Amino acid sequence: MNVSDAQTRIAEVVKNNDIVLFMKGTALFPQCGFSSRAIAILDHLGATYETVDVLQDPEIRAGIKEFSNWPTIPQLYVKGEFVGGSDIMMEMFESGELQQLVGANA
Amino acid sequence: MPMAASDIERLIRESIPDAEVTIRDLAGDGDHYSARVVAKSFEGLSRIRQHQAVYAALGGRVGGELHALQLETAVPHGE
């Protein structure tokens, strides 16, 4: 496994998508409660987003934890910036910050 | 291998001495916890940095042996 290659691929995905969620499963079929919660929040906000299913790619699954020094999945990126995992998404949703962040891209 | 709530609390306090830690065992199985960590030393740190401080305190267990940790961090009010 080429570690730097995974980092390059992740950086490309983050750069090329305004809103992207690295998750377990797909938007239609999330494979973990935390990923499911992240999708529910994004859908509730009416955001247009891409998803990357880390279960389909072990290099991405391992690499994304290094990429932002963040040990868990899901991870949300907006306009190239790491926003957080599902707990931070929920906090920001409740405070209205997330709506502002993703709404600006809608 | 499940972790005891007291171990999670101890590890966080060792690394963030001023932290007030509240752990809840969500499913009663020693594997799904929520933690609320309130610390003055979080002041001025972004949410991401606050969470990273807690993950660092738990020394790589989160996402591994500690599968599900719902985390909330805050700075104490009324300083």
Q: How are the SSEs placed, and which strands pair?
A:
The complex is a heterodimer of chains A (about 110) and B (about 80).
Chain A: H1 3-16, E1 19-23, H2 33-44, E2 50-53, H3 58-67, E3 75-78, E4 81-84, H4 86-95, H5 97-103
Parallel strand pairs in A: 1-2
Antiparallel strand pairs in A: 1-3, 3-4
Helix pairs in contact in A: 1-3, 2-4
Chain B: H1 5-15, E1 20-25, E2 32-38, H2 47-57, E3 68-74
Parallel strand pairs in B: 2-3
Antiparallel strand pairs in B: 1-2
Helix pairs in contact in B: 1-2
Would you give an account of this structure?
The complex is a heterodimer of chains A (106) and B (79). Chain A has 106 residues and is an alpha+beta fold. Chain A has a single domain, classed as 3-Layer(aba) Sandwich (Glutaredoxin). Helices cover 50% and strands 16% of the residues of chain A. The termini of chain A are far apart. The mean pLDDT of chain A is 93. Chain A has a 4-stranded mixed β-sheet. Chain A is globular. Chain B is an alpha+beta fold. Chain B has one domain: GMP Synthetase, Chain A, domain 3. Chain B contains 2 helices and 3 strands. A 3-stranded mixed β-sheet of chain B has the order 1-2-3. In chain B, α1 packs across α2. Chain B starts with a helix and ends in a 5-residue tail after the last strand. The mean pLDDT of chain B is 91. The interface between A and B is medium-sized, with 17 and 14 residues.
